[in-house]
Amino acid sequence: MDIQAIVKQVLEELGKSELKNVRPSTTPIYQEKVEKMVRSIVYEKEKVVRVNSPMDGEIIEKVQSITPARIGIGRTGTRMKTREYLDFRIDHAAAQDAVFRGVSEEFLSELNLPVLQSKSESMDEYLMNLDSGRKLDDASRKWAEKNLSKGKQVQIIVSDGLSSTGVEANIRDLLPALVQGLQVKNISLGEPVFIKRSRVWIQDELASITNCDVVISLIGERPGLATAKSISAYLIYRPSEDTVEADRTVISNIHDGGIPPVEAGAYLADLIGDVLKNKASGVKLTQLKLSSD
């Protein structure tokens, strides 16, 4: 069941709770009132202490204010309360939707970036065969070899990854901020590209094709029940066949409830400047900066 169906069902349940005085036997009237309620309800999540007679409600409220975790939601017997159960279903549906929906064609047109494709021919293959997302398909590789600028300092990749929702929610602000930050620093930049169903390691192949110094991937994070709108930035200096994960620098939790996308773009530009200056990324960059302090 997709998120639209889940939300509709939740709204219907909330609408029914307002119709306790209407007899279900009057079916047409009941149905009409339910539909009217569904159309008029605006569903808003709110953090409220729902524990019955808590020993210290203020402490629970304080903890709720600093974490997206489900704390102080209360229970009825051995089960969570109805509203919290409905919240859970909506968040779960949003997480599934973020993975399987895919970035819309309207958004891709708005971005106006070259669209490439990994070897993953479907989302099922992408999820089950990790290697399929780590290489460009033949057509995309040939296009990149022929059309992308070579020898620039930075190459940017945007990818749906595991959260198309996260990409659509953040890239509009993040990408321009990053590009502007690099331009201010006079750092040369190749043409950013969008790669469908790609994983982080595909950046190594694109770095080899473009002969850039730094390649950075802005990619949708695995969604959770706290948020389905988060992306991460992975960057690496001059990847090779000997590259390991410790060579990559990652900045995660880029979203409105974490690192705001505009702020993240400016920070990533500064970080790329450090990577170029030190000719290193990942653990090596950290070690070099510590030794120079």
TrEMBL record:
So, what pathway does this thing act in? Amine and polyamine degradation; ethanolamine degradation
User: Would you tell me the protein name for this molecule?
Assistant: Ethanolamine ammonia-lyase small subunit
Q: Which species does the entry assign this protein to? A: Bacillus salipaludis
Q: Which reaction does this chain catalyze?
A: ethanolamine = acetaldehyde + NH4(+)
Q: Which PANTHER family match?
A: ETHANOLAMINE AMMONIA-LYASE LIGHT CHAIN, ETHANOLAMINE AMMONIA-LYASE SMALL SUBUNIT
Q: What does the UniProt entry say about where the protein is found?
A: Bacterial microcompartment
- So which cofactors does this thing need? adenosylcob(III)alamin
The record ties this protein, via InterPro entries, to: EutC, EutC_C, EutC_N
Record note on quaternary structure: The basic unit is a heterodimer which dimerizes to form tetramers. The heterotetramers trimerize; 6 large subunits form a core ring with 6 small subunits projecting outwards.
